[in-house]
Amino acid sequence: MLNFVHVLLAVCTVNTACAFSMEGSVALLQLRNKSTLAIGTSRLDNCDLETWRRFVDGEFASGPDAFGDSFIDSMMSAWDWLQNKGDGLLSIEEVIQMQALACPVDCPIRNVEGHGYGHPLPDCTNGMTAESADGMMKGVLEDVIDIQRNEDGSVNSLSIKYYMNRGWVMNKMENIIKNYTESLKDQTPLHALANFMRSWAWLHPFTNCNGRTRALLLQHELKRLGLACGAFMYNNNGRVYLTTTDEFEEMLQEGIDVADIGSWNDERRQLHQKAFPLDPHFDTRGCKEAYDQKLQSLGLPQDQ
Question: Does a structural domain hold residue 181?
């Protein structure tokens, strides 16, 4: 059965900008030391990865059908299309085409409609500290986050924007890609990629299948940049929202290392939980109820 922590990590949102504990850092290093491909060797010499593991969260990696047959079928279709696009950075038009393949129903770019209502983010960020808010917003493209402030100017809560027209969304996608391209000139590739993924997540440009699109972009960019054959992420959607770029970069590295090893198992899941503990701030009644409602609306299998 899914417990509250599973829901927090699986449903599409949150963690906080928490620093590593010493125990967590050691746990992550233990995981990295088990990698079969050492840092500094070419990760692209042998890209024989089980493709479905790129898209099914390591937390639920019981098999390719963990999220249902339609999920993996559409993702594989989009991945096959992506392999024929070459090694260049995708254009916005290509991202839109890829999203259409990955999404089993028509889920176009958001256009004014309030997609996002029922999202747990406002409930879980309500009353967050200024330090956490600043850490989570740093590196994300300016104004893609809906920031609710108190009378004194402090952050009350954070959320994805509810009302956006298509032209605005297209402009922000262009800006995110441009900012990412510029960042690659003076940042490490993995750090720039972490910012890229976080900005794209907060923009939430489509009415659905945003997580799928971002997962495909991530796998494409890892190969394009020569960083890795791919990454098997513990959770593709949850931690990307309310974490810092530095911490998410560590999660990307963890996903790369697990892909090098071959798969997630119980030991590696425990190491992940030690390295990236859930902030107690989110273990509140309002946050839990919001996640319970989101879980029911998604219809995730209760026995996973």
Answer: yes
Residue 275 in any domain: the answer is: yes
CA distances to 52, 134, 232 from 75, rounded to whole Å, are 8, 34, 15
Does the predicted TM-score (pTM) go above 0.85? no
Distance CA 250, CA 28 (A): 9
Residues 49-58: what's their mean pLDDT? 91
Confidence of residue 294 (pLDDT cuts 50, 70, 90): low
Please say whether the beta carbons of 271 and 10 come within 8 A: no
In this structure, are residues 279 and 15 in contact, taking their beta carbons and an 8 Å threshold? yes
The pLDDT, as a whole number, for residue 116 is: 52
Query: Is the confidence at residue 220, as pLDDT, over 90?
Result: yes
**In a domain? residue 303:** no
Residue 139, C-beta contacts closer than 8 angstroms, at least 6 positions apart: 194, 195, 198, 199, 244, 245
Q: Is the pLDDT of residue 144 over 60?
A: yes
**CA-wise closest residue to 113 among 242, 205, 30, 238:** 205
DSSP string, 25-44: HHHHHHHHHT-SS-TTS-TT
**Residue 8 in this model has a pLDDT that exceeds 70:** no
What is the extent of the structural domain holding 163? 4-298
Q: What is the CATH number of the domain that holds 159?
A: 1.10.3290
Distance CA 202, CA 197 (A): 9
Number of domains observed in the structure of the chain:
1
With residues binned 3-state (H G I as helix, E B as strand, rest as coil), the percentages for the chain, rounded to 5, are 55, 5, 45
Instruction: Report the alpha-carbon angle 240-243-247, nearest 5.
Output: 95
Residue at 240 is within a domain? yes
The Cα 6–Cα 291 span in angstroms is 10
| Sign, CA torsion 142/145/151/153 | negative
Tokens of 64: 């390719």
